[in-house]
Design brief:
With 83 residues, this protein is an alpha+beta fold. It contains one helix and four strands. It is found in: Cell membrane.
């Protein structure tokens, strides 16, 4: 198994991350959604990688330890006011 980042293009653009068999890597195929109908056809491209956590989700923009600390301090301050 390899890490994979799949991109579905069709009516909506969908991105999926996970694992796939090595034989499925770097291939493009057509997929029907929902699976039992012919209504919507998506083209899926699976791009594989082998580095540790190469398909991890990106962090939220603008988040850091400072913003987490500020949110924690604000929550504690509000809790003291309410008690």
């Amino acid at each position: 198994m390899e890490c994979v980042c799949s991109r579905y293009t069709g009516f909506l653009k969908i991105k999926k991350k996970g694992c796939a068999k090595v034989t499925e890597c770097n291939k493009t195929e057509n997929v029907h959604f929902p699976a039992n109908t012919n209504n919507t056809v998506y083209t899926i491209t699976k791009t594989c990688c082998s580095d540790d956590l190469c398909n991890y989700a990106p962090g939220l923009p603008g988040t850091s330890g400072l913003s987490l600390a500020l949110a924690t301090i604000t929550a504690l301050f509000m809790a003291n006011i309410l008690v």
